[in-house]
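Checklist before submission:
- one chain only
- standard amino acids only
- sequence pasted in full

Submission:
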Amino acid sequence: MAENGGSIEGVRQRNLARILRIVHVDGPQSRATLTETTGLNRSTIADLVGELVRSGLVEERAPDPSRRVGRPSPVVAGSRSIVAIAANPEVDALELAAVGLDGGIRVRERIEVNHLLTPPQTAELIASTIAAWRDGPLAGARIAAAGVAVPGLVRTSDGLVRNAPHLRWIDEPLRDLVAQATGLPTVVGNDATYGTLAEHLFGAARGLDHVVYLNGGASGIGGGLIVHGALVAGAGGYAGEFGQNRPGIAAETDRRAHDGVLEDEVSRARLLSVAGLTSADDATLAAALAGSASPEAADELARQRRILATALANAVNVLNPSAVVLGGFLATISEHDPDELRELVARQAMWANVEELEIRSAALAQDRLLIGAAEAAFDELLRDPAGALLR
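Returned file contents:
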């Protein structure tokens, strides 16, 4: 028999992967629902689920007691004991999390730094954090892989960080450094691309086929695209760098950076300054701005909102998305006056392109980049459940 995807074993592997992905992305499912969703018969589903249970990838739970009609069907859920490590190095902190195959975050940590981390330092800090977690909150867990979300250009083929300008990393083999330090299979990608992936699977862009995502972080503004339901990475993996575009600024009094790009004008650092903060996570910055009575803070939010609206209008005209999703401090700018932002975008975009356009805040909030990095780390396991944990 041919040893390829058309063999009996190949079909079985695809069905195992299909079931695992369903319960991972869509949450716990009854066996009856899996039977209906996949079109496989009940005995096949029972056999496949049994194999996934024995491998520790899924758990079976008692059926829902509220379901009174028919024979109760056990509920299948992704295992919380299988985790991926996610990391996001930034100019002011290294954020890490362990994300379970069930979608839950087992542990999360923000390590603030007062200097720029080098790639080797980043790898060692990730490794030492994992080692501490293995003796604590991850005792007994199996770590499938690690994913690192980097604010910069990352070559997807080999995880080489071509340029993370705010971290001052040029052509750094971060994937290899983290893999060597941790002993884990490792993937590295652009942070906004991972944020796009997370919001499309689990957040504000779930179920949408055409989305523009912009992420605002300590290192600037990145972005991602969903077109026809698929993540668009570009030839080298560098698509979505909206922050490097030069925005049109109608009023010269709004300009702060001579010949600056979008992320020079729409800036987290400027918001921190008017909020009276030197460093903060997204939630702390948003709360500080919301509670501020300072006219300077209100003026800066309005200025950045005007410039952001022009950038969004350009993206809407080119890509005609059904939704724009804003993450990080960009969500804070939008939420301060969402009606004005939409009005400004509509005023500058083609009317047909904004007729049904929605502008949404990232639903996964501060976890979006880490969840996206974990999802990338889980990719091999989800494609080959039988083999991934054995390698």
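Reviewer check: The chain has a mean pLDDT of 93.
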